[in-house]
Amino acid sequence: MQRKVPLYLAIPACGTALIVAVPLIYIFIRSAEPGWETYLSRVLAQSTIELLVNTLALVAGAIICTLSIALPMAWLVTRTDLPGRRIWAVLGALPLVLPSYVAAFTLVALLRPTGYLQSWLSPLGIERLPDIAYGYSGALMALTVFSYPYTYLLLIAALRNLDPALEESSRALGASRLRTFVSAVIPQLLPSMLSGSLLVSLYVLSDFGAVSITRYNTFTYSIYFAFQGRIDRSYAASLATVLVAVTLLFLLVDALLSSRFRPAPSRPRRPPAPIPLGRWKWPSIFGLCTVLTFALFTPIGVIIYWAVRALWVGNDIGSVGTEIFSSLLVSILAGLVAALLAIPIIAWAERFRSPFARLVERGASAGFALPGLVIALSLVFFVSQYLRPIYQTLAVLVAAYVIRFLPEALAAERSALLGISTSYEEAGRSLGHSPLNVLRTLTLPLMKPGIAAAFGLVFLTSMKELPATLILRPIGFETLATRIWSGASEAIYSQAAIPSLCLVGASILPVYLLIIRPTLSEERK
Amino acid sequence: MTTAGSRIMKTPSAPSQINQELVHEPSGRAVTSSIDGSSNDPVQDEWPRTSRQNEEALLELHELEVHYGDVVAVAGAQLNVFEGEFLALLGPSGCGKTSLLRTIAGFEDPAAGSIRLGGREIASLRKSVPPEKRRVGMVFQHGALFPHMTVLDNVLYGIDADRDRRETALNALELVGLGRLAKRYPDELSGGQQQRVALARALAPSPSIVLLDEPFANLDASLRGRVREQVREILQRAGATAVLVTHDQEEALSLADRIAVMREGQVLQVGPPEQVYHYPETLEVATFIGEGQLLDCEVSQGMVRCAYGVAFSDAEDGPGRLFVRPEDLAIMPQGHSEGIRGQVYRRRFFGHDLLTEVRTETDETLHVRELSSDSSTPGTPIKVCLRKKAFRVFAPEAV
Asked: Relative to the CA of B366, which of A243, A498, B251, B290 has its CA 20 to 30 Å away?
């Protein structure tokens, strides 16, 4: 509708995109610094190939495990007469409150060769459990528990949007219940399964907490220690470029596959009749309980056990107040900055038909595909080279959070803005107000819930962020996440327990309000 | 801004009344987009909006084109809107009528042509006055009342800051009869009330012209008729010039002073509802508005002859195709002097009237609309003849 470039939107939007893009480009420059031959020999080294195999094996395992948990669970809580469906539905998504490193250390505490499980079994003469808590199996369990809720919530939304007439037509045409599910339901769930699996892959590729605690050697693990070794940081940069390339490959595959899906043209008008479980009722409840035991009750039980024990023994927990304050401070700052910076980008890209604005929006979303560790490294390289005075300040840490989580703010504000009819803005213009005035008096007030959600999501994920915090925090600055990690990686669980409890406790409400409830209440619209 | 006094009031006449006059002066043939102004023609006086050729139009669209990428939404539209009139842009969905309206409002830019409002060019390829500077009021399909503001604040939004802002807003609300709802929020109003507030909001800044984009489309059928009448009355009292976009023929025919029929991005015909309905200039207009059928006929010296009877027409001499609507035909007993023999084949009953399908002896199928009390049973041998006395005749090759 407007011909002129809205400078009041374009300038801040381009500025933000630059802040996001420049350090990331710089990491490539830095990795090539020792020369192309060195770079290529590093990238193609046997050890790099091993890392690649390890990482991809973990991704593949996580995709399979999350799908096999999420699909039956989502189906049970949406389409059957399972008693207490709503409560199960919420409980199933609650592992979202657990950061991967908390899930990892609680599983290690339970399952390591001489963990709780072994001590409970020792009366039976079992001296050692098989070593499943560490390495591939441990990392896989922790990451499955941590990431299946994303696929699960996407599948719930998809199942709720299914047109029951499709299944009814299939049954009326003589197909059995099973055949109907396989040939009429599953194909419609494929897009959600794919996007869920993409999310899981991105989480696994970028995870540092779980793999470091379970000591499974992936890219992030190696990059971190290559960086902390501090002999030649360009090696860490080289590995990071490979990780970025792998991530981009996943995004490409996702884009190629999802372009082949055709959405169902109709929308359901009525909820489908619940399928009676009959004699499968108790086995279903048992299955749900098993998953939740591993994914939710055990981790929380372990945390509470250690927290109580730490208090009982009288461990020094006085300093946790400082960490709570530090975590809140940086996360609130990151949330505010991200929610604010997202506004001009979204307003420009969605309200002005400009391909360039779309490009800027894409660029600003790059953090979605980039592991926090890579963002942190690139910032270290860039800031220590060109912005020495702010090196090792909170500003850089907040910048890393903003770069990493800006896509979440963009998504929340985009969906808020897309929900606002352009008629309001057009009416405002017709009534004599300039575009800027319309933005201020109409668009922004109407976007308020979306802006609040953007803040909340960035705040929540920043609270839990680990690798960037470890790398970028000023010396002596501890957050809840760093305290948990240092306690957990040295197996001093009493040190990790109370910060974990604080972090999980602080996450429950935002997770429920911002992620779980919006998905579960969508059916009523 | 027009005053209510300059507005020529017209009570909608029943079509039959007009037809009676046409018997004496069958000159309904329209060649240009509005029939020419031979002003001593009695027919012209029935259609007051048509004789304004000498007057300068308030809104002039000249050869207007609007494109969306490769899609041509408006293709060389030509239209004049005169001060104080209520014009309906009627067309099927996708004909470009909404694009046309949005271009007038300034939300789209023309790819060619120009728009002049009150003698000032507001849009062309070179120039585009931003929407906020056009003084064009807009009423949207869903009302688009700002949900976070009260009714009063909505109306205040468009009024310039001066001492009488509040009074102006309250006056506008009184005009639409909703002054008592000033403190409410839009979600507390019914659909009809919302549209009236939207109208008050659009009128409050005294715009040169008010554009209405399918404002009744989202109302319940039971409410629609009443809200339409209210809106029409409000616009009349305000003396406003208005352009209404609609795909609903009944709405356009019953509300507007003039109708502009649009199709595929072009304005096909502009004229008073009765003229557009009874004397469509093209077959496209004829078949878009209402129902109709074409019958073979022969024209000579202002008279048209066909198997069904004789009538007036101003078409050129020679063979032609007579355009008849179901209500232009009548069913008569077999003994009637005029008409063609046939048989009642099927009836469709609508309550107030009835559509009878007749098979003639020449094996043609015709639809005849009758009052429901005049019904004849299927199988009855009857005669079909012309009820109206003047008709539009199309050239044979136009078919």
From this structure: B251
Phi, psi angles (nearest 5°) of residue A453? -65, -40
Q: Where are the alpha helices (DSSP H) in B204-324?
A: 221-238, 249-255, 273-278, 283-288
The residues, ordered by sequence, that sit 6+ positions from B82 with a Cβ below 8 Å of its Cβ are: B49, B52, B55, B57, B58, B241
Least Cα separation, residue B144 to chain A (angstroms):
5
Contact A429, A302 (CB under 8 A): no
Q: Which amino acid is at A68?
A: S
Instruction: Give B238 to chain A, closest Cα distance, Å.
Output: 18
pTM score: 0.82
Q: Which residue of A has its CA nearest to B109?
A: A1
Confirm or reject contact between A259 and chain B (CB < 8 A). no
The two beta strands, B209-213 and B242-246, are parallel
Residue-wise pLDDT tens for chain A (525 aa)? 445 788 999 999 999 999 888 888 888 888 887 788 888 888 888 899 999 999 999 999 999 999 999 999 999 999 899 998 889 999 999 999 999 999 999 988 888 887 778 888 888 877 777 788 899 999 999 999 989 999 999 999 888 888 888 888 888 888 888 898 888 888 889 999 999 999 999 999 999 999 999 999 999 999 998 888 766 778 888 899 999 999 999 989 988 888 887 766 656 667 777 888 888 899 999 999 999 998 999 899 999 988 888 888 776 655 688 899 999 999 999 999 999 999 999 999 988 878 899 899 988 888 888 899 999 999 998 998 888 888 889 999 999 999 999 999 999 999 999 999 999 999 999 999 999 999 999 999 999 999 999 999 999 999 999 999 999 999 889 999 999 999 888 878 888 888 999 999 989 998 998 888 888 775 443
Q: How many residues does chain B have?
A: 399
Test B132 with A431 for CB contact under 8 angstroms: yes
Task: Please say whether the beta carbons of A109 and A493 come within 8 A.
Answer: yes
Round to whole Å and give the CA distance between A431 and A258: 42
Residues of chain A with Cβ-Cβ distance to B202 below 8 Å are: 430-431
A430 touches chain B (CB under 8 A): yes
Point out the residue among A424, A433, A445 whose CB comes nearest to the CB of B144.
Answer: A424
Q: How far is A431 from chain B (nearest CA, A)?
A: 4
Give the three-class secondary structure for B126: coil
CA distance B28 to chain A (A): 39
Q: Give alpha helix (H) positions in B60-131.
A: 97-105
How far apart CA B154 and CA B194 sit, in angstroms, is: 11
- Answer whether A117's CB lies under 8 Å from A318's CB: no
Q: A1 to chain B: which residues are within 8 Å by CB? A: 106-108, 131
* A436 at interface of B, judged by CB pairs closer than 8 A: no
Angle between helices A444-464 and A493-510 (to 10 degrees): 170
Whole-number CA gyration radius for chain A: 24
Answer yes or no: do B157 and A431 touch at CB < 8 A.
yes
Q: In this structure, which amino acid lies at residue B11?
A: T
* Pairs of residues, one from chain A and one from chain B, whose beta carbons lie less than 8 Å apart: 67
Gap between the Cα atoms of A216 and A317, Å rounded: 30
Q: Cβ neighbours of residue B185 under 8 Å, at least 6 residues apart?
A: B147, B149, B150, B151
**Looking at the complex, does the CB of residue A355 fall below 8 Å from at least one CB of chain B?**
no
Of A423, A433, A446, the CB nearest to B140: A423
Q: Are B131 and A430 in contact (CB under 8 A)?
A: yes
Structure tokens at A17: 């995109």
CB contact under 8 A, A430 and B137: yes
Could you tell me which residues come within 8 angstroms of residue A60 by beta carbon, excluding any fewer than 6 positions away? Answer: none
